[in-house]
Specification:
Elements: H1 19-81, H2 117-127, H3 151-156
Protein name: Ribosome biogenesis protein NOP53
Region (Disordered): 1-39, 70-96
Subcellular location: Nucleus, Nucleolus; Nucleus, Nucleoplasm
C-alpha cells in the first residue's frame, strides 16, 4: 500500500533559460497580446453594430409612440365633436333627404327642396347635445272605449 502512494512532489527550481526559450516566451506574449487586441477590436465593432441597431429600434419606438399619440388626439377630438348620450337613446344621424330619379322633375329649376326646417332644427339641437334624443310619444288612451250598441243598428241585425 505504501508503494502505491505517490511520492511528494517537490517544486523544481527553474534553471537558466536559453535564448531560444526566451524568444519563444516573447513570441507567445506578443501573440497573446495580439489576440487580446483583436478580440477587443471585434467587441468594439460589435458594439458599434449594436449601437446602430439600438438606434434604429429607438427611432422605430419613437415613431410608433408619435403615431399612437396622434391617433389618440384625433380620437379625442372626434369624441368631443360627436354627440354624447344624454338620455336613454343614442342620437341617430338622419340621412340626407333625396328624391328618386323617377320623382325628379324635367327641369332642375322646378326642383322643390326636400325636408322639414323644424325637424332639421330639432335634430341639430339633439346633435349639439342641447336636447336629448327621443322617440315619439305613443298615443295612450286614459280609459277603455265602451262598446255601445245603438237601437237602430240592433233592429237591422
Amino acid at each position: 500500500e505504501e508503494e502505491k502512494q505517490d511520492p511528494p512532489k517537490t517544486r523544481e527550481q527553474p534553471g537558466r533559460k536559453t535564448e531560444k526559450q526566451r524568444r519563444k516566451e516573447k513570441e507567445e506574449k506578443e501573440k497573446a497580446g495580439l489576440r487580446a487586441r483583436s478580440r477587443l477590436a471585434t467587441q468594439r465593432l460589435q458594439g458599434l453594430f449594436r449601437l446602430r441597431s439600438l438606434r434604429r429600434a429607438l427611432l422605430q419606438r419613437d415613431s410608433e409612440l408619435r403615431r399612437r399619440r396622434l391617433l389618440r388626439e384625433r380620437r379625442r377630438q372626434q369624441q368631443e365633436t360627436a354627440p354624447r348620450r344624454l338620455g336613454r337613446l343614442r342620437y341617430e344621424d338622419p340621412g340626407p333627404e333625396v328624391q328618386l330619379s323617377e320623382e325628379l322633375p324635367e327641369s332642375l329649376r322646378s326642383l322643390r327642396p326636400e325636408g322639414n326646417v323644424l325637424r332639421d332644427r330639432f335634430k341639430s339641437l339633439q346633435r349639439r347635445n342641447m336636447i336629448e334624443p327621443r322617440e315619439r310619444a305613443k298615443f295612450k288612451r286614459r280609459y277603455r272605449v265602451k262598446y255601445v250598441e245603438k237601437r237602430a243598428f240592433r233592429e237591422v241585425t
